[in-house]
């Protein structure tokens, strides 16, 4: 592990590196508007990747394109020292924008509703600042622009497509996310910060027939309904109260007409867990209950299970987090908050796990502070504050971009 810099030293070097932030801001803000106006879905981030690669080359970095499909990796070497990986995700969501922004999405039904355009813009700014201030740090900055975070396989795709060979040894990996908290705020915590997530498609089978003769059928709608009811007892009766688990049945599809009993039903389940053993127990319990209900309904066929869209848990390394958090306190002061653990999910950790590197992941605020405070005072946060994935999610341009850029620089300098 590299020698730990003092808080005063990090603050001094951060001020020196960030001295050119006003210059960077002149292209950052237009670039952000451009990315927001031109969102691209997972695995389709070709234009975004091209914009990213061009900007990185202007900053003088060695650029590798097409990693994991549309991923971009850039390396900035500056003598001997730690090798620090900084990551941003690039993909948008199939959401129709309703923000009313002058730079709202020009692509129907697609929107940067999660803030990945913020992440890309901040990392590009941080990389340029590092490139312009090489007298104030030593080591290697590795910038990873990842596709397909929203479908959970972008990080694994990059790892499987030679990321290790491109970046070599990595001492630490760092990433951030914009959240619906006050702009200018930074939040971080050790340990589990985001859950693992699994989607499960379950198909159960009945015996179709006329609605007037239910006695000769096996109704898959009734069967599916009983499964939904019984699944709710797993969390309340089979999981310890000290564990955090969320099980959602988000979709049931069965039948096509009111007087026709169909022959199958499809249930779409989503599971959120923080512990591997709890995850395994939950998946086993889901399977057990589905099979038992099918038997109770005299289903003519065994049910089918398809597990897909797996996201790993995000568990911050204690030592890395303490080091970055100390640097944040030294630079941001009382703007640093404790990040709450949440049941949202993220695939960033697949990258440091593949590289054998410890990591930490933090949040930055993206909301107008006055609007946020007013919503809190009126007890209307849920109603008045659009959250990630909402069609109204719209981080304010500043201080969001400045804070995200500063956080990446300060965190990087706690190692470099």
From TrEMBL:
Peptidase M20 dimerisation domain segment(s): 199-293
EC number of the protein: 3.5.1.32
Domain of life, per UniProt, equals Bacteria
Q: Which UniProt keywords apply?
A: Hydrolase
State the InterPro entries in the record.
Amidohydrolase, Bact_exopeptidase_dim_dom, Peptidase_M20, Peptidase_M20_dimer
One molecular function GO term is: hippurate hydrolase activity
Query: Keyword NADP on this protein?
Result: no
**Top EC category:** hydrolase
UniProt xrefs under NCBIfam families:
amidohydrolases
Name by which UniProt lists this protein: Hippurate hydrolase
The source organism is: Mycolicibacterium lutetiense
Organism lineage reads as:
Bacteria, Bacillati, Actinomycetota, Actinomycetes, Mycobacteriales
């Amino acid at each position: 592990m590299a020698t730990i810099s003092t808080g005063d030293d990090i603050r001094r070097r951060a001020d020196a590196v960030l001295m050119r932030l006003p210059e960077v801001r002149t292209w950052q803000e237009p670039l952000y508007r451009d990315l927001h106006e031109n969102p691209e879905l997972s695995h389709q981030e070709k234009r975004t990747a091209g914009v990213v690669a061009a900007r990185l080359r202007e900053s003088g970095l060695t650029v590798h394109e097409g990693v994991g499909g549309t991923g971009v990796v850039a390396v900035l070497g500056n003598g001997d020292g730690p090798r620090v990986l900084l990551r941003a995700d690039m993909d948008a969501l199939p959401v129709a924008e309703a923000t009313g922004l002058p730079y709202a999405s020009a692509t129907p039904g697609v929107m940067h509703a999660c803030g990945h355009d913020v992440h890309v813009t901040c990392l590009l700014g941080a990389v340029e600042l590092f490139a312009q201030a090489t007298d104030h740090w030593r080591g290697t900055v590795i910038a990873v622009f990842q596709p397909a975070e929203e479908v959970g396989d972008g990080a694994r795709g990059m790892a499987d497509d030679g990321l290790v060979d491109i970046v070599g040894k990595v001492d630490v990996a760092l990433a951030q996310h914009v959240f619906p908290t006050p702009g200018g705020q930074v939040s971080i915590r050790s340990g589990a910060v985001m859950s693992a997530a699994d989607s499960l498609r379950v198909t159960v089978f009945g015996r179709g027939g006329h609605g007037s003769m239910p006695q000769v059928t096996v109704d898959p709608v009734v069967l599916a309904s009983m499964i939904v009811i019984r699944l709710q007892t797993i969390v309340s009766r089979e999981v310890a109260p000290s564990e955090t688990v969320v099980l959602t049945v988000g979709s049931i599809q069965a039948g096509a007409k009111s007087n026709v009993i169909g022959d199958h039903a499809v249930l779409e389940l989503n599971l959120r867990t923080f512990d591997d053993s709890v995850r395994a127990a939950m998946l086993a319990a889901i399977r057990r209950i589905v099979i038992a209900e099918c038997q109770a309904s005299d289903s003519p066929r065994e049910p089918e299970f398809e597990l897909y869209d797996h996201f790993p848990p995000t568990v911050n390394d204690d030592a890395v987090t303490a080091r970055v958090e100390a640097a944040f306190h030294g630079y941001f002061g009382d703007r640093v908050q404790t990040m709450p653990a949440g049941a949202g999910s993220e695939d960033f950790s697949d990258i440091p796990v593949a590289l054998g590197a410890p990591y930490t992941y933090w949040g930055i605020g993206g909301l107008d502070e006055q609007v946020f405070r007013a919503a809190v005072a009126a007890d209307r946060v849920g109603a008045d504050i659009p959250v990630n994935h909402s069609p109204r999610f719209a981080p304010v341009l500043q201080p969001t971009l400045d804070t995200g850029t500063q956080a990446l620089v300060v965190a990087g300098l706690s190692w470099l």
